[in-house]
Every structure is written in structure tokens, then in C-alpha cells.
Amino acid sequence: MSLLVVNNVSKAYSGNSPFGRGGKVQAVSEVTFSLEDGDCLGIVGESGSGKSSLGRLLVGLEKPDSGQVLFQDHQVDRRGRDKALQSGLQMVFQDSNDAVNPRFSATKILAEPLKNFFDLKGQALRDRVGELLEAVGIPASECEKYPSQFSGGQLQRICIARALAAKPKLIVLDEPLRGLDVSVQAQILNLLSDLRKNFGVSYIFISHDLEAVYNLANRLAVMFGSRLVEMIDDLSLFNSIKHPYSLALMASAQFRLTDSPPLISEKKVSLGGCVYSDRCPQAFKDCFAKVPPLISLESGHLVACHLKA
């Protein structure tokens, strides 16, 4: 049994669309993949590609319009009624300041899941809070500090510790490096790598930074325009990526993407065609008329591209 199974999941939101006011914005379209115990799947793509929306669907913060997400064979959108499912599946958000109550000390931030899931009290609770802080590189002696007294990197460590407090099998990390200095980003990546080994936890690591994903993940998924356009199950195949968008990411300076809004042409995008057709220099007639399915090029390597069919 796979740890996580995502089966043909789609989600649209009401609001402004690329074609004017009103209508719906398609955030996630027909996404399918599975995750095995011990995996770290990196999901990469530019801002607006649907990565964060997918992350919220995976942990049950949003309900898909169609399709289903199964965690350990249980439907995720019912997790509010299942404490074991809640504890096993956690999320770390991109903005650590928004993710915590500014009036809570580090102890209170970490104590909340420990009380909810394990009914810890008294000295046992205090001891576990100290262990979690030490595990993420924060001295236990700083447990009574408030969010404003920590740096951005330290506060993200506390958010990671809060996720670990529930003893999860899977943590969805939504842009956990955003807004941090480059040196701090490297420290957080090293921490996540160590925690994955020490706690036996699996990750879905969402990022716009291909280099960070490459350094942490063992599998890669590329999103563009709400769809998965390429998946690689073994990063030894990293240099064999084929989709034109994936190749553009590799060609970007130092493997890094900008945080600028997605460059989607309002005039050229065809809802019935490939989501990348307006930007692809190799696009031909079929690209504007038909959505390319994810097809297998070789074992563990899927690409959604008419050119590769």
C-alpha cells in the first residue's frame, strides 16, 4: 500500500480568471501520482503553477472538486473526523509568521499538538517540547520566547518542530525556504535532510527553486499551469528531463526561478490544448488543440508533451 495516492485531482476557485473578471480559475487539473514510505517528492514550478493549491488538497485543507486523495488508504478530505489521520499528515507553510500565533511562546506553539494528539501534561509535556526544540537546532532554554524574538530561520525551525510533534508519516513542506537568506536556506535544507533520516518521515517538498528540490528530494514532479508536465522517480535521470518547460527551468541561471507572476498569454492559451503551448518554441497544431497525457518515456519517467509521444 502506498503512503499517499493522488487520483485525478482537480480544483478550481471562483474569482478573476486570466480572461477577465468572473468565471473560475483552474488551480489544479487532473493530477495523479503516488508516494511511497520514505520518499521525498519535490514539486517544482513557478508562482501560479498550482503547487501550493495542490499542497492544501493533499493535507485536506481544501476539498477537491473531483478525484480523491488517499493517505494510508483513508480519504484525506475526511481527516477532520480522524485524529490518527490528522497526526500522520502535517504541513509546514511558507510564511512562518502567519503560521503561528504571535501571542504564543515556543512552548505553547509546540504544546498544542502534544496535548491534542498525545494528551501530554506537566513535566512530560515540558520535556517533549525541549526535545523537539533541540531536534531542530533551537536551545530548549529559549522555549519561553515569542515569535517576534526569533529570526525568520529560527521561527521556521519551530514550525517544523510543531509538525514533528504529531509524529507524522508525511509532511507537506510548502515553500519552507521562501524569504530566508541563502545561508539560512542551506541550513534549513540540511536540517530537513537530517530529520528525514532521524524521524523516518516522508516529505512532499514544494518549491520554485529547482536546485533546492534537487538537493533534498529523491523524486521530481514539474508543474505548470495547474498540471503535472513531467515526473521523474529517480533523480539519477535528472539530466534526462524532456519537457520544454522542465528544460527551461534547467537553463535558468543557477537552476533558480524568479518569483515573478507566470507569463500566461491571455490571447493564446487554449483550454483544450497544452498549458505550455503559448510559451513553447516547438509548439505545433496539436499542442493548441489537445491536452497531452502523461506518457511513459522509460521506467519511472513520465512526460506530458505531444513532441515526445
Features of this protein?
Rossmann fold; 309 residues; 4-stranded antiparallel beta sheet; 12 strands; 8-stranded mixed beta sheet; 31% helix
Please summarize what this structure is.
The two termini are 30 Å apart. The chain has helices spanning 51-58, 83-88, 96-99, 106-118, 122-135, 152-165, 182-199, 210-216, 244-251, 285-289, and strands at 4-14, 24-35, 40-44, 66-71, 74-75, 89-92, 170-174, 202-207, 219-224, 227-232, 295-298, 301-303.
Order of helices and strands: EEEHEEHEHHHHEHEHEEHHEE
* Terminal Cα span: 30 Å
What is the total number of structural domains? 1
Mean pLDDT equals 88
Shape: elongated
Textual characterization of the structure:
The chain has helices spanning 51-58, 83-88, 96-99, 106-118, 122-135, 152-165, 182-199, 210-216, 244-251, 285-289; strands at residues 4-14, 24-35, 40-44, 66-71, 74-75, 89-92, 170-174, 202-207, 219-224, 227-232, 295-298, 301-303. It has 309 residues and is α/β, with parallel strands linked by helices. The chain has a single domain (4-308), classed as P-loop containing nucleotide triphosphate hydrolases (Rossmann fold, 3-Layer(aba) Sandwich). The chain has an 8-stranded mixed β-sheet with strand order 6-7-8-3-9-10-12-11, with helices on both faces. Strands 2-1-4-5 form a 4-stranded antiparallel β-sheet, covered by helices on one side. β7 (170-174), α7 and β8 form a beta-alpha-beta unit. The chain starts with a strand and ends in a 6-residue tail after the last strand.
